[in-house]
Design a protein that fits this description.
A: about 140 residues, 2 domains, about 70% helix, B: about 220 residues, mainly alpha, about 0% strand
Chain lengths: ~140, ~220
Amino acid sequence: MTPSSPSPPAGSGPDRQEARALARARAAELRRRGARIRRSVIALALGLFTAAFLVVYVQLASGHDPALVAAAQRRHHLQSRRSTRSPSGGTGEATASPSQSTSTELGSESSSGESGSEPGAGESGGTQEGSGESPSSVTTSQS
Amino acid sequence: MNVMASHAPLATATGPYLYWITSRAAGIAGLILASAAVGAGLLMAGGLARERRAEMRVAHEALALATLAALAIHGLTLLGDGYLHPTLLELAVPFAGSYRTLWTSTGIIAFWSLAALGLGYYQRARIGAQRWRSLHRLTAAAWMLGIVHSLTDGTDSGQAWFLVMIVIVVAPPLALLAARHLLPSALARLTGRLAPAGAAPGLAPPNPEMQRAGSR
């Protein structure tokens, strides 16, 4: 395909076929490159997901999950408050209605963010007040 | 459970949390993929990858689709979470749920915006190429909503590794976005051309060769 060569009649000749073949080859090369890029992106996505899963899994399994640790700390704080209050149980407020006291504490725990903080955060300790309660159930028991 | 034991970091049985872990992992992957997709889009729009435009277009599209898949997994796996028990309606409709309503809704709005603005590409003929381009620029806003959601609603948002990761993946697209909107003339000089008056800097027509090659 030299520029000096006389132009063949339109619609025929080796130049046109050559150009078509070249275009087909280029299109095929682009398709191959596109498929390679798509495969790389899929591999990247799977790799990212796996890495993130492992980080979160190890963090949780080793007991360092931020939501579960915060929930456990709140539970510990709540129980220590309860245990310091119960020995002096002569005061009317604490003994008059223990159920009311408990539900109020649960409510404050809820508002401080445990029940609304993280999915699964309330299940960690296995203690009654936090485990598996949805925000709405806490609100119900409070009211 | 012992109070002290619950206070100290101990090994936790992960079985009940698998849906939750999957959702968190998919959210993190989605955030990284979305940042990469936005970065690739901004590189193309800014004319910074002209030699590799066809490849960038394919990468941008693949990253955007992978983002949507990851975000769909992020939301749908929460359906199996034993603590939150959300309904499909609460996961799909903003302000329908009671769990951290504002920040969860931010994420839902971000997802639907990304889906509409990204998948609108396949309806360009109906929407009109120019209108689609104008709308597609809002993708960056949806991406930023997603970042806000991850920082406010994310379980790991207070963790050092998460914050470092956010900075690493968000800073480059954010810098490109800032350059595009705050310093368009400098960007045009950098790319060696001037943006036509009234047009967004760096937006070039689609590459017909790549489209014929079936890049979509």
